[in-house]
Amino acid sequence: MFSPSWLPPKDFELLRWLFVPGGGYGFVLVGLALLELLIPQNRRRWTRASLLSGAYLLMAGKLGIYTVAVTPLIRKLWLYFNLPSAHLDRILPLPLYMLVTVLVATFLGYWAHVGLHRIPLLWHIHKIHHSPRNLNCGSVYHKHFLELILHTPAALIASLALGTDLVAPFGIIFILIDFVGHSNVKLNFGKLSYVISTPQVHRIHHSREPRHYDRNFGNQFMIWDHVFGTFCDDVENPPTGLLEEIPESFVKQQILPLAWIARDMGRRVSGLFTSAETPRNRRGESRGSGC
């Protein structure tokens, strides 16, 4: 059952992993970082927030090795136990299979992202990703460890349900678009923002303005935001982050969500003996209506 093929590749280099965030796509991060210095959307001074972004890039980003290890493991287990799959990769022509996979993967990703915002327990975890007020390409990794750990298996299981022959470039392309969408670069992508998650539209998603709440959930493509009415293309450059103050500490940002979840669970238990409150969305406001 166990095979050496489940382990990281033999050409894996520890030093490269340590010093090049993201491994093979580290050069993209370096390029975007240079663009952020040359043509930033918002010019910023180096602050404690800058050091925190660096900490997430160097520490949370290292979980990339987790992806390298867990992806072949899950696939081997799926095949070994003969778990169900539509095997569209064996039925459909490759271009059609790729199109169907992208549509299904982004559809599930859209609703998973909505769930991170609408379900209080998940929002406590996801709000760490929304806390930076200095949004930059490294903010892709600015997440609670639970979100980083759970994302890969969830996305992989969705892919395996469609076909057991994975289309490797998808992950790379999705990650690259995610980096660009979070970057602090002053580039006008024009109508392309209606199709993919560019810095303009993803900055709306991270906006502190109440009218922008719960908009632009697509991390890569915006098709499902158009379908479900959550797309917003605002020409403004809104401030990002949360109205709630989150400590600019890596350790505290990893511990606090667990404390928030424990607090809410305690309230739910005590709420069994009191009247229930009306549920509200992730920031205590109705969905933004300014777009």
State the main characteristics:
disordered N terminus, single chain, 291 residues, mainly alpha
Give structural notes.
The chain is mostly helical and 291 residues long. It has one domain (4-270). Helices cover 53% and strands 0% of the residues. It is built from twelve helices and no strands. Helix 4 (64-80) runs parallel beside helix 8 (145-162) and helix 6 (94-118) packs antiparallel against helix 8. The longest helix is centred in the middle third of the chain and has 25 residues, at 94-118. It starts with 13 loop residues before the first helix and ends in a 20-residue tail after the last helix. Mean pLDDT is 83; it is low at 1-23.
Briefly summarize what is shown:
The chain is an all-alpha fold. It has helices at residues 14-19, 26-38, 48-59, 64-80, 88-91, 94-118, 120-130, 145-162, 169-182, 199-205, 223-227, 250-271.
Order of helices and strands, N to C?
HHHHHHHHHHHH
Shape field: globular
Q: What fraction of the residues are assigned to beta strands by DSSP? A: under 5%
Q: Give helix % range.
A: 40-55%
Give the biggest sheet: none
Average pLDDT, all residues:
83
Low-confidence stretches: 1-23
Radius of gyration: 20 Å
| Number of E strands | 0
Class per helix and strand makeup: mainly alpha
N- and C-termini, Cα separation: 53 Å
User: Into how many domains do the coordinates divide?
Assistant: 1
- Quaternary structure state of the chains depicted: single chain
Q: How many H/I helical runs? A: 12
